[in-house]
Amino acid sequence: MKKVFSFLVLISVLYCGFACSSDETDLSTSGNVSQQITNTVNSGTWKLTRFVHNGSDQTIHFDGYTFVFSENNILAASNGTEELMGSWSALKNSFDDEIDFEIVFSGPEYFIDLADEWHIESRTKNKLELTTVSDDGESSNFLRFEKIIN
User: Fold this and answer.
1) Mean pLDDT across the chain, nearest whole number?
2) CATH, range 25-147
3) Could you tell me which residues are beta bridge partners of residue 101?
């Protein structure tokens, strides 16, 4: 009986070792999340594919713009004729231990609307979706960046 029990324990441990291991890593719980986000946005050029502000879709104002998130926290937006400079950061919020993705632009008006401390709703290596409470406090603002893949 003791041998059977020992054998079952061994099989259970081996099974869990193989079944519980994974090649996939949950980016939200491993390592320095802020640095992972920084590495993601620093790689490549991005476009804004959706922006809802105070319940109104404002995406059209960003058609033709590309965004580059530089390592020195400079955010450049360009449409080929106009280049706008802002800043960005991905820092841990001391209140709830979440990462805030902050964007700052000083103009024009529709870029100023992007300025906020955004909550990271979801992220992959090619997409970043952000939310924040709207100015009226009644709804959520939504912002999506997608990496331009050549």
Assistant:
1) 79
2) 2.40.128.540
3) 90, 118
Kindly report, residue by residue over 74-90, the tens digit of the pLDDT. 999 999 999 999 999 98
User: Residue 143 — left, alpha, or beta (φ > 0 → left; ψ -120 to 50 → alpha)?
Assistant: beta
Domain boundaries, the chain: 25-147
Query: For 15-24, 49-58, 97-106, which range has the lowest pLDDT when averaged over its residues?
Result: 15-24
- CA–CA distance from 121 to each of 113, 118, 127, 142 (Å)? 18, 9, 11, 9
Read off the pTM: 0.74
Q: What SS3 class is residue 123?
A: strand
> How confident is the model at residue 3, as a pLDDT?
45
CA distance 53 to 68: 22
Cα–Cα distance, 49 to 143 (Å, whole number): 8
Q: Which two tokens stand for residue 76?
A: 């450049």
Q: What is the 3-state secondary structure (H, E, C) of 35-75?
A: HHHHHHHHCCCEEEEEEEECCEECHHHHCCCEEEECCCCEE
Chain-centre distance for alpha carbon 77: 18
Q: How are beta strands 46-53 and 140-147 bridged, if at all?
A: antiparallel
Rounded Cα–Cα distance for residues 86 and 49 (Å):
18
